[in-house]
Amino acid sequence: MSENVRLRPEIAALTAYSQGRSPSADGFKLSSNENPYPALPGVLEAAAARVEINRYPDGAAVALRTELADRYGVEFGEVIVGAGSSSLLQQLFLAAAAPGDEIVYAWRSFEAYPSFVTITGATSVRVPLTDTLEHDLDALAAAVTERTRVVVVCSPNNPTGPAVPGTAFESFMAAVPSDVLVVLDEAYREFVTDPGAVDGQDYLGRYPNLVITRTFSKAYGLAGLRVGYAIGPERLLAAARATAIPFAVTELGFAAALASLERQDALDERVAEIVARRDRLRGALIEQGWNVPSAQGNFVWLPTGEHTTAATDAFFDADIAVRPFVDDGIRISIGEEESIERILAVTSALRR
Ligand code: PMP
């Protein structure tokens, strides 16, 4: 009778992160913003050849951090890696916020933020997106109080798609007190084509309170290996590192990430294909009459409102798994080329 065991009530009330329903083997899984392509050519082979699985991985992640630091032109201590950027977001929240503190973020945004905040014991402050489903950076800055320890900016925003403009981001950084940690979550940065969009890389070393997070899960197609990274001031990252579960990133993950970084040409080609497919799908949806916001990640947002559950079922009947956000909309990941026609048949029927 485990009822007697005292749990933290707010944790007992949480549900574990879930991916939802799966399509059949012939269907399309467009529900988790994954890459439809396998790892870049040669990456898995290169990784497997180097790994000794009887040993613990390098807890300090020296090789991958050195390579990333070199790439971004920062010091070794200004980069850390984690088990996906999910882990790093949680670590950063834990490093900065405790019960009684506040973490501010836009809503709707990445579903994991509220859980990560609850785990720290801090309080979520959600700032609504604009009518065009973009971050309202003025409202985010205005929501900062003396209790705020972290503000999260997600660009491009999951699940709605728009990226934050660079100029607006600079005004936002000027408005947020420098003792508040700003986390710029750029999980989808490689897919951004809007030249005016913020690029965290441009701001490295410029703000004492800015950390950017990126991942090998999306553009690099390594979601199954769990490797993400954060770049920012060494003191902040050292604190975040201290909250990590030891050895959470595996040697296979390090090796695959390093090998992937050597395949920049192949990466660019794939990203270009996914981006072209995304823009084509968005254009066709708009032609069907859907009000699809700017799509800068590897997904598009379909505003299905109160019909979201029925629309999700319609996709599922066509053997397509999408991500529903009840009474709001559906996020469709950009997957295989052959999925596009099938998506458009479903969305066309939904308009009737
Ligand atoms: N940030 C955002 C905005 C995401 O959508 C995701 C994945 N869905 C992540 C971070 C985390 O991805 P990962 O842990 O695989 O790096």
UniProtKB/TrEMBL annotation:
Cofactor(s) listed: pyridoxal 5'-phosphate
Enzyme class: transferase
Aminotransferase class I/classII large domain segment(s): 26-344
Superkingdom of origin: Bacteria
SUPFAM superfamilies with a match to the protein in the record: PLP-dependent transferases (SSF53383)
Post-translational modification N6-(pyridoxal phosphate)lysine, affected residues: K218
E.C. no: 2.6.1.57
Keyword vocabulary terms for this entry: Aminotransferase, Pyridoxal phosphate, Transferase
Family classification: Belongs to the class-II pyridoxal-phosphate-dependent aminotransferase family.
Assembly and oligomerization: Homodimer.
Function: Aminotransferase that catalyzes the conversion of aromatic amino acids and 2-oxoglutarate into corresponding aromatic oxo acids and L-glutamate.
UniProt-recorded name of the protein: Aromatic amino acid aminotransferase
Organism: Gryllotalpicola daejeonensis
